[in-house]
Amino acid sequence: MSDHRVTPAGGISARGRQVAVVAARFNAEIVDAMVSGATAAWERLGGEPDALVVLRTPGAFELPLAARRLAQTGRFDAIVALGCVIRGETAHFDFVAGEAARGIADASRDTGVPIAFGVLTTENVEQARERAAPDRMDKGGEAMLSALEMAQLLEEIGQP
Fold first, then answer.
1. What pLDDT shows up at residue 4?
2. φ, ψ dihedrals at 137, nearest 5°
3. What domains appear along the chain, each with residue ranges and CATH number?
4. Closest CA to 139 of 150, 147, 131
5. What is the DSSP string of 3-26?
6. Residue 41 — very low, low, confident or very high, per pLDDT cuts 50/70/90?
7. Contact by Cβ (8 Å): 63, 57
8. 15, 75, 92, 109: which one is catalytic?
9. Does 92 participate in catalysis according to the annotation?
10. What is the pLDDT of residues 73-100, one digit of tens each?
């Protein structure tokens, strides 16, 4: 199997940045792999271990509130929201996934702080494991790269 890990691209750097990862505890096996991928990408991109804050929420539904509050502190250049929602036999999946996406997008737009949407929405556990694994699809690492790229872009654009 090929290596899909996130590598530095386009001059993206974590050096001198402050980033928070907010991660759901629900589906911990999957989300923990994503946190590992995000942390590894942070380090590969030159981030200082002490400059990366990792906090937990009960589930994906709670991610937007925590991400918004972190953004409002003004301490972070970017936030990475990580979670996993696996389809079941009820409509619960649709509500949780949809509200997590909407809430994270709203929090980012309202605060002006980039919040990367790293919430997996899969049909089954196998799909989630494949996407979360740092040595496979590495969606946690991708979310970190996206957050850092947006922080850099907004810095280049300047204040409104």
1. 42
2. -85, -20
3. 22-154 (3.40.50.960)
4. 131
5. -------TT---TT--EEEEEEST
6. very high
7. yes
8. 92
9. yes
10. 999 999 999 999 998 777 777 788 889 9
